[in-house]
Structures are given as C-alpha cells and as structure tokens.
Write a structure and sequence with these properties.
This protein has 240 residues and is mainly alpha-helical. The chain has one domain. It has a two-stranded antiparallel sheet with strand order 1-2. A hairpin with a 3-residue loop joins β1 and β2. The relative contact order is 0.16.
C-alpha cells in the first residue's frame, strides 16, 4: 500500500523529471522537492501560522499561569479556552516534520530504486523508460554515496530555519512563579536549535547524498516560506 500510494508516484515523478531535465538526476531531485513543497504548502502554511499564534499568546499564557498558579484544573481549562479563542494548536511545531516523514521515506525508497536502476516495472504507461539512470548529479556529485560537505550544508540550513523560529519568539514577560518553567522551555528550544542540525549532519553523512540534497532544498524552501510569513505578519497592524 505504501509503495502504491507514496513510492510509485514519487518514483514516476523522479523518472519523468529526469527525462525532461536533460537526464540529470540532481535536477530531477530539485524539481521533485519543489513539487512536494507546492503540494504540502497549505498544510505547512497552516502549521506555521499556528506556531506564530502560539508565540503571540505567550504573555497571555504567563498571565493565566500567575492567575491560576494554585489551581491546575482551572489553569488547564483557561489555557484550552485561550487556545480555542486564538485557534492555536500547541502541537503544531511537530506537524511539518510529521507531514514530511512519509514523503522523506518514500523519496529514499524511490531514490534507492532509481540509483540501482531497478523497479522500472513501477513506471506508469505514460512515463518514458529512460533505459538507465545516471547517478552523478550536476556532473560531479555521486548521489548513491554519502557526501559529508552536503550533509554539513544541510545542517547549516536546518540551523538557519530553526533559529528563525527561536529569534521570532516574543521577549519574556515579567517574572512569575512559572519563570523557571519558561526558562527551561527556552533552554530546550535553544538545545533543539543545536541538536537538530547536528542530527541532520550525522545522519546525512551516512545516507546517499541524493537524500541530503532533497533535505537541503526542502529545508531552504521551508525557511523561505517562514521568512515570507513572518514578514507578512509584521506588516499587519498590531492587534489592540
């Protein structure tokens, strides 16, 4: 089922792009990544807007924590009411990663098939058989082998994209009894800003460079989408 719904369409898009873009698998991966970002744009945009809304209501959350610091049940009810009022999903930060995960696995499987010159039986009738697929991208990058420099560049892009979210957070409000919790949350956010790029570099250095190329381009496009959304949000008049 996963092969039919995810891997086969991605494999056909990859081969079709390869046929159309001068038989260069690197350009085919770039094209496939852009197409996926376009398809996933509405979901990613909704997740980012929810993240922004969650950041904007942090002062109100802190006020609720101070107001109901002796009653956790009342705090939970007030917090959920605040989330509903502002249409905020507190788990939205995980959504972009969860959305990309099946496609990331699907691209890995499709790329593995393409690089090994197998699974041409998965081609749709209207996609031309390329005969063979050249696994060297842009004339110099072997996509079947790991590339440490590309993994490092992907990690830097991951840091840039994550750092954008951290620096966008509003400054902390006046100190309250929940200050230690807020400081711990801020520390965790900063640690994730460092840990995620490190994980990207370590994992990317062990996977085919074609996958690192996909992750790099996808992360850059996501970062540009975030930047555009932030600028659009800042251009709006402040809510009273």
């Amino acid at each position: 089922m996963f092969t039919t719904l995810i891997v086969q369409p991605l494999y056909n898009l990859l081969v079709a792009s390869y046929n159309f873009l001068g038989h260069d698998l690197g350009f085919a991966i770039l094209a496939l990544t852009v197409l996926l970002r376009i398809v996933l744009y509405p979901l990613a945009q909704a997740a980012m807007k929810s993240q922004l809304a969650l950041q904007e209501i942090q002062p109100k959350l802190k006020a609720l924590q101070e107001q109901h610091r002796e009653n956790r049940e009342a705090l939970a009810r007030a917090t959920m009411s605040l989330y509903r009022e502002h249409k905020v999903n507190p788990f939205s930060s995980c959504l972009p990663v969860l959305i990309q995960l099946p496609f990331f696995i699907g691209i890995y499987m499709a790329l593995q098939r393409a690089l090994h010159g197998s699974s041409f039986e998965l081609l749709y009738p209207f996609v031309a058989h390329p005969g063979t697929l050249n696994g060297v991208a842009f004339g110099f990058l072997p996509l079947a082998s790991p590339s440490i420099p590309l993994a490092v560049i992907a990690a830097i892009a991951q840091w840039w994209q994550a750092r954008m979210l951290v620096t966008r957070r509003p400054p902390p409000a006046a100190a309250t009894r929940s200050g230690k919790d807020e400081d711990m949350l801020a520390l965790m956010n900063k640690q994730m800003t460092v840990l995620m790029p490190i994980m990207t570099a370590v994992i990317g250095a062990t996977l085919p460079s074609g996958l690192s190329l996909y992750w790099l381009v996808s992360t850059v496009l996501q970062g540009l989408q975030q930047r555009w959304l932030f600028q659009k949000q800042q251009s709006k008049p402040a809510a009273s």
